[in-house]
Amino acid sequence: MREPELDLSPTPGDEVRTTTCYMCACRCGIKVWLQDGKIRYIQGNPAHPVNQGVLCAKGSAGIMQHYSPARLEKPMLRVGPRGSGEFREIEWDEALSIAAGWLGDIRARDPNELAFFTGRDQSQALTGWWAQQFGTINYAAHGGFCSVNMAAGGLYTLGGSFWEFGEPDWEHTKLLMLWGVAEDHDSNPIKLGLGKLKTRGAKIITVNPVRTGYGAIADEWIGIRPGTDGLFAFALIHELLRMDRIDLDYLVRYANAHWLVVRNEGGADDGLFARDEDDAPLCWNRATNAPARADAIDVQPAVVGEVTLPDGRRAVPVFQLVAERYLDPQYAPDAVSERCGIPAATIRRIARELADTAFEQAIELPIKWTDTHGRMHATMTGRPVAMHAMRGISAHSNGFHTCRALHLLQLLLGAVDTPGSFRYQPPFPKPIPPPNRPGRTRQPNGVLDAAPLGFVHGPEDLVVDEHGHPRRIDHAFSWAYPLSAHGMMHTVIRNAWAGDPQRIDTLMMFMANMGWNSSMNTAETIGWLTDKDEAGEYRIPRIIYADAYASETVAYADLVLPDTTYLERFDAISLLDRPISDADGAADAIRHPVFDPATQPGPSGAQRDVRGFQSVLIDIGARLGLPGLIDETGAPRYRDYADFLIRHERAPGVGLLAGWRGEDGTLEAKGAPNPQQLDRYIANGGFWRSEIPETARYYKMANRGYLDWAQRMGFLASGEPIVLQLYSETMQKFRLAAQGHGAHVPPPEHRERVATYFDPLPIWYEPFESAQVDDVDTRFPLSAITQRPMFMYHAWHAQNTWLRQIAARNWLYLHPDTGARFGVVDGQWIAVRSHIGEIRVQAKFASNVQPDTVWTWNAIGKRRGAWRLAKDAPEGREGFLLNHLISDITPRGDYANADPVTGQAAWFDLRVSIEPVAAADASAPQFAPIAFTGADNKPLRYGADLRRARALGDKS
């Protein structure tokens, strides 16, 4: 019998192109295999530094994202009421003329009448610069309701942060703590890293109310109560201090533990650093019993004890303040155990494990290096304790201080950028705080004096009027939310509707589903988008929205600008924005068109007429005559976004892409534009990477080799060391202002708030919803949170045909003990109530959740008709959002439901009650379906025609 002939190495397609994935924030390298001009297969690129060939379900399902039935096909102008989904298709010339007409009138009248807010677009290096050219201060980005606590908490403490800008030392860590980490961000690099840790036998502890994904493979799960992570961190700090297990040498060498803080209660200098005539911070030199410069190398600095300065003022070292605060019995394990839901014995044990790993299992790498004082070191000593944190700790009204608490814990262990610890990824660390301040005034040509987003150094940098009132539509950089480095996207619609602080003319959004899953209190938000004034005109006069898909928010736009899929356009993953560096090298990347969108039939079968929003924005800017977008003759400066990527320079020699610069492409990081730059990226798999010298990979904040390298690369303006800040003088400047000191003081209604929350050392306080709802533990005894699933990202993927096969609906998950406590059985319909409303959903038992917490998957619930899902799709019938229960303002109604320092949306402060209700056919609330054309219900057998074509080809 003849054996069949088997092809043991089939070729996935007849052509392959390498680019960058956009199915989450990982920015993995992918190979897109084509057959007969259609996608046959997507696989990871083994040569890519981010994922090294690993690819997740989302990345593989990019095929269905590109061929989604929800894709928009042409520009559209609204013809029915907002929210109805009734549009007429128009041509691009008309669409761009309308947009330029609306925006041109605004710029001539008052640029701040444009509010430009962008979602998870990863192109803020363009969009923020464009807003600056337009002259509006009203620009913000996704991070304001997603990750600004993480960014600001880190950048004001370490000059770097968790999230996508730092990583554990996967090669040397012996103990890793994951705090509030879901599986959606940076997932493939984390999976690779966790694999290395498991192989080496390192211990992994996950701190999260829910045990999913990474937590499922952790050695220990700490099921913490939401919003108490900072309290847990302080208990660990308390124990380390009590046991005297602190790396004081590290704290003096690299942090401000020995800097003297003035004690002058009620005085204008109280809590500020003592400084010399050159404004250099001082320490107390025990060798001479006198003050000395804190950065001197020939001193013996005191870290405890009060001293009297030559001018008679009293002062104490920072470490003295740290010890005084966190040795307080209120932070002892027994004192915090009940609130955190963690046994006191567990807290004490983990503190001992941290100390033992850091000090008894210290590692030493035989790598010579030179510090910023010129001292040679024969080896690099490391504390092999690493931490990583994400939204679970940041999305609370106490999240900024929780982030700082974790960094304080790291610093006390000497576990920041040492072998085995948390490591910076270039271009971090940055000076503390980073030098770029938010734009506030316009130049004579109408351009803002700086980009709209930035970092406040003191009260003088706030974007407020002469009375101290907010100038920005989102109230970012105001006395209510001073350090809102990413803006406050979650407040713009309410404030635009209310005309607070001014009426805007046009709200322009890109990839921001603010009409559904990206809004708090969704029903009320929809009301603001559709509300009219006494004259019958919409209170938000015009809405321009750009998206690739028929999301819920598309229905509320007046003008829709259809974007491409990520396989049809150029993108830059820029070092000026959200880079893909790792701790050992700087890297950036591009996406480039695998397809011309004009060749890709749309859901209707007609050819789509769509354009990448970045190119559209450049076109509109040129039509408006924005200074940076036209040349000396008034002609467009850039042909499109690809041309912008090549020729635009943020500073001489510095563009959005760092690879292959210079006219001949021989330079990196800094150099003249190279006309062939994009071709070089494409030939290299879509990315560029530059290795950090081996001697410069640790102690980056004080490593002469790294700081000189970073200065050459343009990451730092100087090679000065970056001193890590246990104690933040920036925070104390705001507290002094609240006490009436200085030229810039808050209005009376904000003074107590600023004085309370701008503590220079990390603090913990009850999340606002828990603190401000009367009798909250009785009325709303449960915390409710969402988890971002590893297999979906935001709302984009709950419409993806393949990913929907993993989950097409969600439940409210609760512990079986919780079910018994409230009389709920598995699968029962329940009413879930918060202080603002009620939803009705189905419950599902799961033992992977802390018993005082309920949870669900994020963004799976859809509005019927949106995303062109079938009218009875499970996402719209049984799926739901917790957003309906989350208020956008505090229970008292005085501020946004947000962190008082940064304005970060407090998504995870939600408190609820549950009770059984009668069975239902659908979740509640339900909204009127959006009148988008639904997808064909017939089964989708993608690839069958490709298999047939291949089979016929083989036979021939």
Question: What do you see in this structure?
Answer:
- Helices cover 25% and strands 15% of the residues.
- It is built from 27 helices and 34 strands.
- The strands form 10 sheets. Strands 5-4-25-24-23-6-7 form a 7-stranded mixed sheet, with helices on one face. A 6-stranded mixed sheet has the order 30-32-31-34-29-33.
- It comes from Cognatilysobacter bugurensis.
- Residues 14-70 form the 4Fe-4S Mo/W bis-MGD-type domain.
In the predicted model, the low-confidence regions spanning at least 5 consecutive residues are: none
> Tally of extended strands?
34
Mean pLDDT: 95
Radius of gyration: 28 Å
Question: How are the secondary structure elements laid out?
Answer:
Blueprint: E1 15-20, E2 29-35, E3 38-44, H1 57-60, H2 62-66, E4 76-78, E5 87-89, H3 92-109, E6 114-118, H4 124-134, E7 139-140, H5 148-155, E8 166-168, E9 175-179, H6 187-200, E10 203-207, H7 214-217, E11 220-222, H8 229-242, H9 248-254, E12 260-263, E13 282-285, E14 290-293, E15 307-308, E16 314-317, H10 318-326, H11 333-340, H12 344-360, E17 363-365, E18 369-370, E19 376-377, E20 380-382, E21 385-389, H13 391-394, H14 399-412, E22 422-424, H15 492-498, E23 506-510, H16 522-530, E24 542-547, E25 559-562, E26 571-573, E27 585-591, H17 613-624, H18 641-647, H19 677-683, E28 687-691, H20 704-713, H21 729-738, H22 748-757, H23 768-772, H24 776-779, E29 782-787, E30 812-814, H25 816-822, E31 829-833, E32 838-845, E33 853-857, H26 874-877, E34 911-916, H27 944-955
Helix pairs in contact: 3-17, 4-17, 5-14, 8-11, 8-12, 8-14, 11-12, 21-22
